[in-house]
Design a protein that fits this description.
With about 300 residues, the protein is an alpha+beta fold. The chain has one domain. Helices cover about 25% and strands about 25% of the residues. The protein contains 8 helices and 10 strands. α1 runs antiparallel to α2 and α4 packs antiparallel against α5. The protein starts with a strand and ends in a 6-residue tail after the last strand. It is found in: Plastid. It holds the Pfam family PAP_fibrillin.
Length: about 300
């Protein structure tokens, strides 16, 4: 048996490589243990994961057009080569807006230090729910019978409906030829998970709180095989997490309040950056995405829907 690397054998099947991907993801705490901000001890595992992903792409490449149904539904992040919060379209928009890796990486590092120092907070589940439909002709004549709500949403995404509030938020050059719809990202936050003090006691000094940051974005597919997923952020809101109370006062006050992230970004920056990631592997249970910097985001169908 020929060994390509410590993690991959030549004879490995797709199922065997997938098993190794999930095993490495679990061992590295969704990639968190390989974060330079935590330790340099496991940085080599990123190369191992990239090799496994390359193997999946070789064994079962994306060589035919993806359909909206293949991507639609709920997915849970199981591994990433960057910080977990960067799976949110909001932070991907920040990165695209800077268009300078040094500046965006500094921003992300500061955010990580501010929110994660001394165990102040921990990221829980990170999920995406995609709702995509096949593309429709972008031009809709007034009064035409084809002007259904779904078709209007499609045309608005392309910026084709003059005077539409939605049209101004999406970049005019966003390609929707492969299908379009929406994506909702949810990042669960657990606040004050560890507040006991050694030698003082083993009980928690402060209760644990939490919340879910939900970001909605317009989503469209492009590329020869619809493998490019394009996102334009629309809004952000706070939601409750099951069995974890919201922060007193502020939590109930802001719960469910939708913040127009896209509109505010457009006023500040002049436009809403379009973020793009490429599907490098997908099947019924696993999806691997890669951004322009080569960072990986691996999602699996959740065992339970929350």
């Amino acid at each position: 048996m020929t060994m390509i690397s410590p993690v991959r054998m030549v004879s490995d099947s797709v199922a065997e490589v997938k098993s190794k991907v999930l095993q490495l993801a679990a061992a590295m705490d969704r990639g968190g243990m390989a974060n330079p901000g935590v330790s340099n001890a496991y940085l080599g595992t990123k190369d191992d994961m990239r090799l496994l992903v390359e193997s999946l792409a070789e064994l079962d490449p994306v060589n035919k057009p993806l359909t909206p149904s293949e991507l639609s539904g709920r997915w849970e992040l199981v591994y990433t080569t960057v910080e977990l919060f960067r799976a949110s379209p909001f932070f991907q928009m920040v990165e695209a807006g800077y268009d300078d890796p040094e500046k965006s990486n500094l921003f992300f590092k500061l955010h990580q230090l501010q929110t994660g120092s001394w165990g102040a907070s921990k990221i829980g589940r990170v999920t995406q729910t995609l709702d995509l439909i096949d593309s429709v002709p972008p031009s809709i004549e007034g009064g035409d019978a084809t002007a259904t709500p779904a078709a209007e949403a499609e045309a608005a995404a392309a910026g084709a409906i003059e005077g539409s509030d939605k049209a101004g938020v999406v970049e005019d050059n966003t390609d929707v030829s492969g299908g379009s719809g929406s994506l909702e990202s949810e990042v669960d936050l657990i606040i004050l998970p560890l507040t006991s003090v050694p030698l003082v006691g083993f009980w928690k000094l402060l209760p644990t709180f939490g919340g879910c940051i939900a970001t909605k974005a317009k989503c469209s597919l492009a590329g020869d095989n619809n493998e490019v997923v394009q996102l334009v952020v629309e809004s952000t809101k706070l939601k409750a997490v099951e069995d974890v109370p919201l922060l007193p006062l502020a939590g109930p006050l802001f719960e469910g309040m939708e913040f127009p992230t896209g509109e505010v970004t457009k006023k500040v920056m002049g436009n809403v950056p379009v973020t793009k990631q490429t599907v490098v592997y997908i099947d019924d249970t696993l999806r691997v995405m890669e951004d322009k910097a080569g960072e990986l985001y691996i999602y699996a169908r959740p065992l339970k829907s929350f």
